[in-house]
Sequence to fold (452 residues):
Amino acid sequence: MSSYIVTREYPRREEYDVIVVGGGTAGSIAAIAAAREGAKILLIEKYGFLGGTATASQVTPMMHVKIEGNPASSIDRKIRKHMIELGFGAKSPGGNDGWFNPEMLKFVLEEMVLEQGGEILYDTQFVDAIVLENEISGIIVHNREGTKVIEGKIFIDATGDAEVSYRAGVPCFVGSEKSGKNQAVSLRFMVGNVDLKRLETFLKDLGQEWGLNYPLIEMAMIWNKGFPLEKVFKKALEDGVLEYDDGRYFQAFSVPGMPGVMSFNCPEIPDVYNSLDGAKISYSYIKGRKMIKRLHNFLRKYVAGFEDSFILSVAPMIGIRESRRIKGEYILTIEDYNNRSKFDDGIAKTAYPVDIHGEEEGEEVIPLRPGEYFEIPFRALIPQNIHNLLVVGRAISSTFTMQSSIRIQPTCRATGEAAGIAAAYAVKNNIGLRDVDGKIIREIMRNYGADL
Ligand SMILES: Cc1cc2nc3c(=O)[nH]c(=O)nc-3n(C[C@H](O)[C@H](O)[C@H](O)COP(=O)(O)OP(=O)(O)OC[C@H]3O[C@@H](n4cnc5c(N)ncnc54)[C@H](O)[C@@H]3O)c2cc1C
Fold:
């Protein structure tokens, strides 16, 4: 994708040290981290709140990184602790302190950005990048004021889709290397007025032995995987209440600070494997809502606890697991997973498994044993071609199979913190991003308390 040719003069805004595009899971943290280092930052977000997939797509809880103690970057840890203190977060008996209330996360993230002196521009869509000699000089955005240019020294692409990178001419990958297909998309929803105690008893009586720690409740069903709920799904299928697709992937969690609410990690939309196709994504919302109506009708009729429940909300943003990924200075591959790679410039560590939704199988994996993990190097955040840009979140430089492991929220947050620190460091020291030593970024993260 070539850079934008500015054919007309747009009004320009004041220049910023660091502009973060996308106030989602990783972008909010990048903004907090850069502002904490004293940089003058602007955070641009297309919705009217922060959190991205965690809030707009209602993806709760955060997954455990599967390393003893659930290690985290410092801002991530602060958010988890704060959410628990406020009653909007919880730690499961299994040690996952990443359960959270997505609605309240919006408040907490916004307060943290503002507390650090960051500026937020909501309802603003990034449109294109203006590139001069391998540097982004400004970005073109659209909001209620119209179309305008905003200039900055360093940019952080936190759009999840590597949108800024792609527009600026960074080489990108899309989907599986074999088929080009992306992972499946899901339209999440929440159901209110659920009697969680009755639900817990119902699931226990069915034979479910995991995830039942009232008020933290989990339920799941995937055809032919031996879930106790399968017999209930089968009956509803025979009765014509459900369709086969409804049970391809079904999962739900209760939500801390929202008594009587279950948040559903489904429905997974059948046959949509191009998350960058506008028409397919529109279809996914329509199809998803039909499936949600059917699933809720099923729950009320067949699952104890849901009798008097109602659909509380459908996520305003479809859940995209994977779309575009940048080609960076380092490309994480499944070899790094299988070799348990560690790096001098490692800025995150995880043992989360390869977790691909949809049709693709992925590459051969040697499962991690307890105590084993791999790291993400800072270089995976540095895109090729453009010198004043970093990429964070699910779009960092990796292969399809590897992305399915590193896409979880704690890891996205760690990439955000690393990029925010690095961007501010480059501005403070008046050096290019490529001259920033990733080992120093790791050290700064450690000094703030990251488990690295
Ligand atoms: C259905 C589903 C279930 C999942 N389950 C879990 C789970 O249980 N636990 C877990 O830890 N992880 C889970 N994940 C993974 C995880 O939630 C995501 O990978 C992660 O949140 C992505 O973070 P991100 O910062 O890269 O992107 P996002 O959080 O999506 O942030 C991108 C932000 O950029 C904004 N944006 C995009 N384009 C523009 C633009 N042009 N202009 C302005 N703003 C823009 C968006 O509005 C958004 O706020 C799941 C993901 C999905 C989709």
